[in-house]
Task: structure prediction
Amino acid sequence: MSLLLEQGRSRLEADDRQLLVTGVVSFAEASAMAEAGRVWLADQPADSEVAFDLRGVGRVSSAALSVLLEWTRQARDAGVNVSAVYLSAPLERLTRVAELDTLLPLAESDVA
Result:
């Protein structure tokens, strides 16, 4: 994993096929996180597959969902396929309440 961004209480890391977010993503960090992910996505080859892992985001955060939706749009525009999205339990609940779950390739969860 390589560190792409560490700001406030949030951290963004990447490996060759995945963006990993941990900590608390507030609106103060969201813009920089979206941009760091955009730069990483722009370096991915067209038709490649990536995953977004937000299981380490501990609090419900509409800012984190905004970043996730932006990355999804950027991946689509770059011709990169999002194979899976992993969410923490609080983010998964917020995504379902906001009815965004049908827009994302959510990975199966262990959360009841």
About this structure: The chain has a mean pLDDT of 91.
